[in-house]
Amino acid sequence: MENAGRWEQNILINELVQGMEVARRLKADLNAPYPADTKDLLLQRILSSYEKALLILRWNASTSESQNMTQATATATATLLPESPISISASPLREDRDHNQEFKHDSKKRKTMDKWVDQVRVSFESGLEGPHEDGYNWRKYGQKDILGAKYPRSYYRCTFRNTQGCWATKQVQRSDEDPTIFDITYKGRHTCSQGNKAVAQPKSPDKHDKLQCHSNEIQHRHTSEESLTTFGTIMTVKRDMVGNGEMEYPFTFPSTSFGSIAQESHSLIPSAPENDSFLSSHFQTHLLYPSMQEFKYLPSMPFQMNELDGIYNRPLSESDITEIISTNTSTTNSPVPEFNFSLDPVDIDPNFPMNSLDFSPRELNNKNM
DNA sequence: ATTATTTGACCGGC
DNA sequence: GCCGGTCAAATAAT
Q1: Strand ranges inside A53-166, DSSP E
Q2: Is the CB of A333 under 7 A from strand B?
Q3: Is strand B in 7 Å reach of the CB of A359?
Q4: Is there contact between A139 and strand B, defined as CB under 7 Å from any strand atom?
Q5: Angle at A292 between CA A306 and CA A309, to 5 degrees
Q6: Which stretches does the entry tag as region Disordered (predicted)?
Q7: A338: buried, middle or exposed (CB in 10 Å: 19+, 13-18, 0-12)?
Q8: Structure confidence by residue, pLDDT tens digits, A280-304
Q9: Which nucleotide is nearest to A139 (CA to C1')?
């Protein structure tokens, strides 16, 4: 608790320092022959720092409100989630589904808990094919033509659903208006070691993220248009708890990485006091989340804040920028080394099955669409 | 042999 | 009964 508070403060300070640092460097190099896009990127970076700092402050504000018991907030959410998804039958046959009351019960519970919804919408230049590589391994389990939609909707679940009981799913829907845009709706947070890996990296590969695979829904918007200026397009995160209508988190920030944050943000384990670690988890993910494929194969990737150096120290190519984006959005935003500690024991759900840390490259190579 | 995708069927909610 | 979400057998890929 106390640590988490300090930790957030550290993040806050570092974000501000970082923003200032980037601004300073930008100023120093104001006349350097960088492409306008690059400067855009840097500016975006600065704005991002401020946005995040504000986010932290706002979050703290809302937390203290909730601690005053005037409103239900994330704490209430946590109490809504007493069940462990792990207890669900790993491979429910249809008969099981129909006859297993427990499952049904959970399912229903999950439904009601799904009342609260996260929505993240982001437009950014991915430079990749399609909207994929969000750092997780997904297995397609269905496709459906949707009424009124031009393109079918694809359904994915976490590859490690059976092995690790990770119930995260996502739906991918190509936009009608703009076929280069994909709407991705995430449901359920990752409880697998990969989800955790995204967080836990590099030095403590066996630390695990929290488990609660409860209801959440995040929507990303991905585009593959070739325009760097779209990077950092404002995205909004909205968190609704419909059940009690308690919590709404409207805020905006300009970094794609927040998609990952939002995606990983709902670390509401019932067993742990969450108010502080809630935000912490955002930033853990934010800091260490490997959003691009290349990171998957770099288990010892040192997450440091050198990425921007690359921007300054050499002319940028398109691929450079892509790389910067990937690293920037996943690691740089709050890169300070001391954040690596952040996976303190309190964040680890004791129930997590620590048995499967073996990722084969094949597994990691899963692609979407 | 193992893992992933495709796709028609099934199911529950509305 | 329609529709969206999921299952699971068949098939493809590795």
Answers
A1: 116-121, 138-144, 153-158
A2: no
A3: no
A4: yes
A5: 15
A6: 89-110
A7: exposed
A8: 333 333 323 333 333 333 333 333 3
A9: B4
CA of A147 to C1' of B8 (A): 18
User: Does residue A160 approach strand B to less than 7 Å at its CB?
Assistant: no
Sign of CA dihedral A338, A339, A340, A341: positive
* Beta strand segments in chain A, E: 116-121, 138-144, 153-158, 169-174, 181-187, 217-223, 235-241, 251-253
The one-digit pLDDT tens for each residue of chain A (369 residues) are 444 455 556 556 666 766 776 677 667 666 666 566 666 666 666 666 666 666 656 555 544 444 443 333 222 232 233 333 333 333 333 333 333 333 333 333 344 334 333 444 444 444 444 444 678 899 999 999 999 999 999 999 999 988 888 888 999 888 888 777 788 888 888 888 776 655 433 333 333 333 333 345 656 665 543 333 233 332 334 343 333 333 333 333 333 333 333 333 333 333 333 333 333 333 333 323 333 333 333 333 333 333 333 333 334 333 333 333 333 333 333 333 333 333 333 333 333 333 333 333 333 333 333
Distance from CA(A142) to C1'(C6), angstroms, rounded: 7
Note the pTM of the prediction, 2 decimals: 0.42
C-alpha distances in Å from residue A264, one per residue of A36, A101, A272: 33, 29, 16
Asked if A194 CB < 7 A from strand B, the reply is no
Amino acid at A295: F
Q: C4 C1' – A173 CA distance, angstroms?
A: 13
Establish whether the CB of A3 is closer than 7 Å to any nucleic acid atom in strand B: no
CA of A92 to C1' of C7 (A): 9
Determine the length of chain A: 369
Collect all residues with Cβ–Cβ distance below 8 Å to A297 and sequence separation of at least 6. A361, A364
Protein residues in reach of strand C (CB < 7 A): A 91-94, 97, 141-148, 153, 155, 157, 169, 171, 187, 362
Does residue A268 contact residue A278 with C-beta atoms inside 8 Å?
yes
SS3 A138: strand
Phi, psi of A230 (to 5 degrees): -80, -15
